[in-house]
Amino acid sequence: MKVFLDTNVLLSALVAKGVCHDLVVALKTTSPNPFERIQCHTCERVLLELKTHLPTKFKWSASDTDSAITTFCDEYTIAPAAYTTVPCKDADDGWILADAQLAACDYFITGDKEVLTLYNVGSMRICTPREMLLWLRTGIPIPKFEAHEDRAKYLVQRLEKIY
């Protein structure tokens, strides 16, 4: 299974101990299918956004920023750069989605509400960090074409099945 982590997920994982941090840790250690390894992907565009936002928005030093980026480069597969974009309100998001699609990722994990409204791009499912983490922890898969407007109702139904 191939998953692609968007900039906002990686930023949140680095600066806060919350859902995104837990997800990044779980992706290294857990797989919903014991016979299938999870491959984490990112792209040069995401790494460039990290290099820009960590020092400016979060006051990270250049060496800490470079260390974080080096870690992602070592642990994640860097997706090739796409030559065409996915139609999206934010052009940067369109290029990142295209990179993920070119890498044949199964899931695109993001917290960006505009990107989440796309639901999927081709066969790549777009989901929240919480949805992916819930899948990894419970083993109940994320439906491929779940509408995000029904997310609250859907999550309650999933939790009721678990407990």
Care to describe what's here?
- The structure is a single chain.
- This protein is of the alpha/beta class and 163 residues long.
- It has one domain: 3-Layer(aba) Sandwich (Rossmann fold).
- It is 53% helix and 13% strand.
- The protein has 8 helices and 6 strands.
- A 6-stranded mixed sheet has the order 3-2-1-4-6-5.
- A hairpin with a 2-residue loop joins strand 5 (120-121) and strand 6 (124-127).
- Helix 3 packs antiparallel against helix 4 (62-75).
- The chain is globular, with a radius of gyration of 15 Å.
- It starts with a strand and ends with a helix.
- The mean pLDDT is 84.
Quick take:
The chain is of the alpha/beta class and 163 residues long. The chain has helices spanning 7-15, 19-29, 44-58, 62-75, 91-102, 113-116, 129-138, 151-162; strands at 2-5, 39-43, 77-79, 107-109, 120-121, 124-127.
Structural topology:
Blueprint: E1 2-5, H1 7-15, H2 19-29, E2 39-43, H3 44-58, H4 62-75, E3 77-79, H5 91-102, E4 107-109, H6 113-116, E5 120-121, E6 124-127, H7 129-138, H8 151-162
Parallel strand pairs: 1-2, 1-4, 2-3, 4-6
Antiparallel strand pairs: 5-6
